[in-house]
Amino acid sequence: MSRHTKLVIGDVIRHLFLIVLVFVWLFPIAWLIFSSFDVGPGLTYTQLWPTTWTLDNYYKMLFTSNSVINFPRWFLNTLIVAVCTCLISTIFILGVSYAMSKTRFASRRLLMNLSMILGLFPGFLSMICIYFILKTLNISGSLIALIMVYSGSSGMGYLIAKGFFDTIPNSLVEAAKVDGASQAHIFFKIVIPLSKPIIVYTIITSFLGPWCDFVFAKVILTAGYVDGYTVAIGLYQMLDKMLLNTYFTQFCAGSVVVAIPISILFIITQKFYVEGITGGSVKG
After folding, report:
1. What are phi and psi of 275, to 5 degrees?
2. Which of 1, 11, 48, 263 is the most exposed place for a label (fewest CB within 10 A)?
């Protein structure tokens, strides 16, 4: 067998493997999207393509509410939490990253090592402790508590942004100091204008976490009334075995609606997202 033949066979095998992976990944998404247009309300295993198409499921999710569904309110709650968390977390991450990258102070290396060690532990390990702290403060079950939890430790995710700031020449910072600029002036007037890719990356990741999270939201939002849910909790409640055959296609419609803003945001900012990751991976 010639070398060319071996290369062709290897390429065919790799492409077949990739096709299988794409099918495994896309099939559930396609099934969910097609089910959202199905005229029947319940779960079906017998067909992928709806026999009758309808937009009623989207209409019901967006414009009706009852004791089980209040999607507009869920969407608003999730948007409030995600936007507030995004703003706070972005400020924390950029501030900590700049301090770790461009300043030198006592215990700097120790703090960086401790942050990395703590980052190795899954966040949900602390959720019981966090819940009782919030309950003691009498703010458990509120959106404010959820924002505090998502934003509180965001500064520990500084590593990629620090790597990006490391690529900015120190000579610029030193020249500004010689001219009498303060650290705040250097940060806002010199570093931030040069850091658009990592800022966009930080905004996207800070927004995605609260938008998609279920675990912490389920633990903290224990009020039990429909209007207090986020989208993740509300859609999960619709999958209860008592409700599945009544609300499954509406659940699919809600899942599609939730994915649309994130998809649009990612498509628009994809260039900066990639630049932020690659720029932050140059130096540690």
Report:
1. -65, -35
2. 1
Query: Residue 38 forms beta bridges with which residues?
Result: 53
State the pLDDT at residue 85.
94
Task: Catalogue the long-range contacts made by 122-131 (C-beta closer than 8 Å, 24 or more residues apart).
Answer: 123/153, 123/216, 124/215, 124/216, 127/215, 127/216, 127/219, 128/219, 130/216, 130/219, 130/220, 131/219, 131/220
CA dist list (Å): 69 to 83, 228, 235, 241: 23, 11, 9, 15
What are the beta bridge partners of residue 110? none
Burial 112-127 (b: 16+ CB within 10 A, else e): beebeeeeeeebeeeb
Instruction: Record the tokens describing residue 128, joined without a space.
Output: 């019981």
Contact 149, 130 (CB under 8 A): yes
Question: 34-64: per-residue pLDDT in tens?
Answer: 888 988 877 777 777 888 888 999 998 988 8
Using the 8-state DSSP alphabet, how is residue 68 labeled? S
We find that the CATH architecture of domain 68-280 is: Orthogonal Bundle (1.10)
State the DSSP code for 191: I
Which residues touch 164 (CB under 8 Å, ≥6 apart)? 97, 195, 197, 198, 276, 279, 280, 282
The three-state secondary structure class of 38 is strand
Domain ranges in the chain with CATH number 1.10.3720.10: 68-280
Which residues in the chain land under pLDDT 70? Answer: 1, 223-224, 272-284
**114's tokens:** 């401790």
Determine the pLDDT at residue 284: 44
For residues 259 and 109, what is the distance between their CA atoms, to the nearest angstrom? Answer: 40
Q: How many angstroms from the chain centroid is the CA of residue 50?
A: 31
Instruction: For residue 83, count CB atoms less than 10 angstroms from its CB and return exposed for 0-12, middle for 13-18, buried for 19 or more.
Output: middle
Helices 108-119 + 71-102 axis angle, to 10: 150
